[in-house]
Give the backbone structure.
Amino acid sequence: MFFVFTAVLLFWPYTFAKAKPIPYSRDPKVPLVVRLPRYGFFQGTQVLTTLKYSIEFETPVDAWLGIDYATQPVGDKRFAAATWPEAFAGTKDADEYGPRCVQNGGMADQSEACLSFNLYRTPGVPLDQKLPVLLWVHGGAFVGGSGRSLDGAAFVAASTEPIVVVTMQYRLGALGFLPSALFEEEDLLNLGLRDQRLFLEFMQEYVEYFGGDTNKITLGGQSAGAHSVALHYFHNYDKDKGKPLFNQVIIASGAPTARSFPDAEYPLYKRQYEDFMTSVKCPLQPNDKALKCLRAVAIKDIHDASTHIMSKSNYNITWPWQPVSPGPLIEKRGSTSGEDGTFYHLPLLISTTTDEGKLFTPTNLTTNAEFISFLANLAPDLTPSDLKDLEKLYPDPTSGSGPYSKAPKSLEYDRISAAYGDYSYICPAQETARLVSNVSVSVYKARFNVPNYAPSWQGVPHASDLWYFNGLSSAQYSDIAELYHSYYVSFIVYGDPNKSSIDGAPTWEMYGGVGDGELVVGNADRGGTYMEKEGAGIRMEQCAWWRDPERMKRLNK
Ligand SMILES: *[C@@H]1O[C@H](CO)[C@@H](O)[C@H](O)[C@H]1NC(C)=O
Ligand SMILES: *[C@@H]1O[C@H](CO)[C@@H](O)[C@H](O)[C@H]1NC(C)=O
Ligand SMILES: *[C@@H]1O[C@H](CO)[C@@H](O)[C@H](O)[C@H]1NC(C)=O
Ligand SMILES: CC(=O)N[C@H]1CO[C@H](CO)[C@@H](O)[C@@H]1O
């Protein structure tokens, strides 16, 4: 029962019930045929409504849906790096969403053959007019989500500026991330991140044929999508040095140091891998037999094993199927790239929610000892002296006083949520903002303080912002959706969130380093939207502790 509950809790922002067919027009007024050289012709369509609640747009949005950007990783290509798609003759219809990548939940509408993207564009603008592009990487803990996690058509429909929005899919769960010695030896680590990378290259080649501006690509993402974006952002080294495949960045609840990215032989991953291999009845040795077996297993068995191990790990937030370092695209961890300065000097819009941790943390812990063992289990590289520090940094509420003494659910809930949120999101985002602002690039930082139908005991948990990016009137506070979306559009189009934001939008001032200003985005009941000094919104002392360079390294960040 608890597993079902937490799975829902974790994935509610990302999953849609199997949708009714999306209303679209098979006969757009203009042909919407694009020719992608060395690939093929695609016939687009027009999307008429939002994904959720099917709210009709004033004007239908031009769209190309479900286009493959790679040869699909099936059969012998399962667990292999994806490759450029093959050219074909004739015209393919691009008027239906591709299936989601295999993930937790029912397998209807899921497939291994999931490496596709959707592209939405303001209607009535000739294709030879190149528009700014938002390229969005969805979240879902690297085990969930899809190209429909962000409603790209709704984003375009609400935009006062002509724009292109692209949503893409990458391999998830065990199929996308199976840390192990085997995969390290066979150069098969971080496949899901490599899918994203291939797609960035694909966009460099082809976005202009859809009327997108190759020189105005904002790479954005939320949660695991934001970590992904941040990892690409901090990959200004090796053959990528000086050659970013995007022009600016949006990071919503993420950072290159958000997660620990230990190596492929991390003890936890080793156990989870062995558990997985046992479940799918594949041998651990020798490599060729193990891989051959993995490529032949029924997809349902992979789905079930991947899901089961994820669910078992959910309570303690010791998730399997994560990117590892060293590994492709994270040869160096984020803290090292930060220290070396090997990130791209490109404008950044970065945010976290007020109560990030509260979506994830256990609601039944009541003692100081449980607080300590939760953290020690989460991050085994915390030393005894670290754990002593943490007891002080986050005062124990059992005495009946202090900042965490009014916890709902269970006595330690607020305290653990604060520590987990700081460790995973809030302090890593501050570190990224600090580093980028230090090289004199525009940084806009926000604290998102608007819930979206979360239970009140969760405050403003992780992913609250998800329904507000689009300007969707179905968000709990539709005025905030309109406001936040307008900042996003303005940043994507002008590199400045203020330029075309709606009338009366408070000025979102640039962030100038630790302690400087961040925009609080709040509904009226929570004090509204205004600039605050960072120290008024986040735990500065605790963040300085988590951002300590030696500690970040030790925690594999
Ligand atoms: C809290 O709930 C989890 C999941 O149901 C359970 O495994 C664990 O033992 C509980 N912990 C305490 C301290 O009650
Ligand atoms: C969860 O973590 C606790 C320590 O906080 C540990 O005792 C327990 O065994 C862990 N449970 C699982 C399923 O890993
Ligand atoms: C960046 O940080 C360094 C070290 O803290 C400092 O000396 C330098 O002035 C900063 N540069 C900018 C542009 O803020
Ligand atoms: C801090 C900042 O970027 N302010 C700008 C916000 O946008 C308005 C309108 O373009 C500018 O006048 C401000 O300079």
Remarks:
- The longest helix spans residues 413-438.
- Confidence is low (pLDDT under 50) at residues 1-21.
- The radius of gyration is 22 Å.
